[in-house]
Structure formats: C-alpha cells, structure tokens
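Me: I'm a chemist; would you kindly supply a protein sequence with its structure tokens?

Assistant:
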Amino acid sequence: MLAGKRILLIISGGIAAYKSLELIRRLRDRGVSVRCIMTAAATNFVTPLSVAALSEDKVYDELWSLTDESEMGHIRLSREADLVVVAPATADLLARMAAGMADDLAATTLIATDKPVLIAPAMNVVMWHHPATQANLTLLASRGILRVGPNAGKLADGEEGLGRLAEPHEILAAIDDFFAGSGLLKGRRALVTSGPTHEPIDPVRYIANRSSGKQGHAIAAALAALGAETTLVSGPTHEPDPPGARVVRIETAQEMLVACEAALPVDIAVCAAAVADWRVASPATQKVKKDGRLPVLSLTENPDILARLSTTGAARPRLVVGFAAETEEIVRHAQEKRRRKGCDWILANDVSPASGTFGGDSNRIHLVDDTGVEDWPAMSKREVAERLAKRIADHLGAGTT
C-alpha cells in the first residue's frame, strides 16, 4: 500500500530523534520515497550524513539555501509529498506550528504545506502536561493535524510518564492507516452544514442558536480526509476552515438553504448546523432605539433544511444525517425527529448547560437509525467526526459507485 508514496519527514531536536533513523529505514523498505528536513537542534542528536544515507536523498536544513530557495525550495518541499510527518515533534516545534511561525525551514515548510500533517510528539512528562502544550495540541487538532503517541514509560531524563516518542513501527502503522483510509470516500460528494445562523432583527441585533461550529467543521474535515469532495456551508464561527473542504459562508437560514441546494447533487449530507427556527418577518432597516417600550417582533418560521434535503426526490442524497440537540429525553426526541424529518440517521446529543457540549471540545453521541440506537462513549468532537466519517464510508461501501 505504501509503495510509491512520498513522505516529507521533519526531524526536530530531541533525544528521541535517533528513532527517526529506524523509521526512515522501515519506510524505504516499504518502497516509500523519503525526503528529510532537520532542524538545527536535531543535528545535535543525529547527523545529516546518517539521515541522507538511509533516505538516499539530500537532507534539507537551511531556509536560506541559495540553490534551493532560488526555486522557492520550502514551497516545493511542502507540496511534493503525499504526507508530512514530524517525528519527533518537540514542544517547541508544536508551539511554533500553533502560532503559525516561519522562523526556520521546518516551521516555514509546515505553514506552507497544503498536504496532511502527522505529528509524533516527544518531550518531558511535565512539558507534555503543561497547559500551553495541551492548548497547542487542541488548536492543531482543530486544524486537522493528525497525531500518533506519545507513549507512557521511562523517559531519557529519568522521569516516567507520557512523553515517549511512539515507536517506529507505531508511526509506520499510523502512516499505513492514513493511506488506507484516505481514499475510502474518493469519488463521493459530501455536504456539511455547521455553526449557527444569525437572523437579523435590525442592522445590529439578531436571533441565533448557540453553536461554536466545532463539531460540524470537524465532520467536514473528516469526510475530506477520507477523500470526499466536501462542501461546508457554515454560519458565523471562529473555527478555521477544515483542510480539504470548500467553504461557503452564510448568515441566515434562507442563505444556508440556497447554498445547500446549490451544492446538490451529493452522496452525503450531514446537517450539523444549529439553524434558528424563526426569523423576524420584517427586520428593521435602521437600529431600533430603546425608548422605554418593549418592541413587538413578528416572527415567521425558517425553512427546515434537514427536511428539505431528506425529501428532494431524485436529487436526494443517498445518506442524510441530522443532529438532535436536546436537553431532556435525548433518544426519544431524536427518534421522533428522525421520523418527522425523513432523514436516515440522527445523531442525538445532550446540550444542557451541565453537559458542556456547546463551545466545548467533547461530545457524547447516540446514533439513531432504522435499526435502533447506537450509544457512543464520550469522546472529542474530532473523534466523533472521524468515527462518523468511517461509519458513513462503511455504509456506502468503500470503493463502490
């Protein structure tokens, strides 16, 4: 499966860098083309000569190499690989990745790449658990960065705990998994809605539902990672664009419906947006002034996007998935919603204030379909997205049209 693949391996400075030599050997044995970038610190642990000998290619370590940079070498390096692997990924390099810095060849290549990135962190246990490191990892995960490890055990400094670089065979397995899964939805078209909608009252006020867009954006990223041609229709959020997805930004429910219908036909539709149920029938064209009297708002119902997509005749997606954000009797309400809307699956979740779902990074899903209810354990929204994407691929039949 890996034969003929091209990997750009970035080696950063840490004692675990010696494992990168074994990783290169294993990749070359599998017929993988390996090109390597080393940070200045990495050369204190393994030599560029060793890396070049094993990779059978030139080693890159200088951002301002006149020969390579005359051809914009960091751009070429970042684009010619099928996958970028950072092993080991130190706390320093993770921080620079999160901040979007471009202060050496490794960091510049990482911010210039348009290819998937897999990191294998390695550091002291206290550094791993530091809030700054954990915040950086969360941010990188939200951008679609993949991760393997770290492992727990005795560290080079004598301490024990999380921080050991994943073993070369584990990193190789993660690379295998990436390429095995990356084409499961190739040839499929997917539509995902995400975020809230804002329904204007006047030019400065609006009605909205609570939604960060984290779950919907993660789903779009997961579907794109499996090879689906993915369109994300998103209301206002602060989430970064999912890698590989085409993003259409809207404000209102009516705009979202138009954008969704324009994206058809698709094989998969996942409606994760928190669409406002009502809008003001006639929004004021000027700011409504507070004058001691309560304004009277005449509301009208917004279009039901999930129901529309579920009943579009010949243009109906093969699989329509909705969300049921509930605060009580989660599964029962979701089952009723599925029957009412006509969709294939409903993903029910508890959004009561105590759950922390709105704006949080974790979720607990109950998947409702025509066979019953599948209860998923609590997991990160990214993990929910990946599990859903793989279940969709299984349902549609990998590799079939």
Residues 6-181 form a domain with the Rossmann fold fold (CATH 3.40.50.1950).
